[in-house]
Automatic annotation (TrEMBL):
Record-given protein name: Polyphosphate kinase
Superkingdom to which the source organism belongs: Bacteria
Chain intervals with Basic residues compositional bias: 1-10
Enzyme class: transferase
Gene3D superfamilies to which the protein is assigned, alphabetical: P-loop containing nucleotide triphosphate hydrolases
Region (Disordered): 1-23
GO molecular function annotations of the record: polyphosphate kinase activity
InterPro entries in the record: P-loop_NTPase, PPK2-rel_1, PPK2-related
Amino acid sequence: MGHSKKHRGMKSSTGWDVPPPEALRAPAGFDLAAFDRHSTPGWSHGRGKAEKLVAHHAGELSDLQERLFAEGRSGGSRSVLLVLQGMDTAGKGGIVRHVVGLVDPQGVAHRSFGVPTPEEARHHYLWRVRRSLPRPGYIGVFDRSHYEDVLVVRVDELVPKKEWEKRYDEINRFEERLVESGTSIVKVALLVSPEEQKKRLLERLDRPDKYWKYNPGDVDTREKWPAYQEAYQAVLDRTNTEAAPWHAVPADRKWFARLAVSELLLDALRRLDLGWPPADFDVDAERERLRAT
Ligand code: AMP
Ligand code: MG
């Protein structure tokens, strides 16, 4: 640890017409129904250039991740939390592989949230989330999150309306406190179109190497598409806060979603203005001691 890698070449996110955090931020009054899931907001180039840029970001991403990790080891309190929400096939797993996979896995705390286990179900819905938060120095990645508690829970009426209604404000307070305690939250809604979802689900049935990803329940969820869109709209309306804003990422083109999330993660890390922790020992004295051995 402690060797200093230099950022190579362009530091800005070249190629974008608009800085990506700005192009992707869900504005107040965001209209989910009107959102083009095949679009590439802020980006007017194609796939080749996007993939090159993601590859180019790898060096800076892993350098910043290492700085964050070093800070955490030296008593720092900061961390980053990437929250990935999206319907089945939106590409959450691909983001983890292709974007989060660019950094040292030792510094990543990945957690996916499925149907609560019996133990989880006995606790408040934020209990399992709190226990999964990244420790100082880590990049936490949530594949689904506490937002399921106002998405599937709302659509399938798993708790009464008066219960889930309270959760939006509760989630906002929870996230605000998290940010105050040093966690930068990057919330990403990966928005796939129903047509593209159908294509991706059919592909899973056409390919034996994809059967494992197919869950017959996904078709039941798909049949409730309008109710899910309404629930997502409510999330974007009611939890798009200053402390933890939402980003709307069109997911019909996987290469764009991957570029977009790599930029958002990079932006969050850059804003931490990470240095290297100073030595807590006498460097010269240590050098002399080593020479003498
Ligand atoms: P997958 O991400 O494909 O592994 O699927 C996980 C499943 O768990 C999805 O169908 C989610 O809707 C479901 N899930 C996640 N969180 C909850 C929750 N709090 N209550 C009920 N179902 C959930
Ligand atoms: Mg699934």
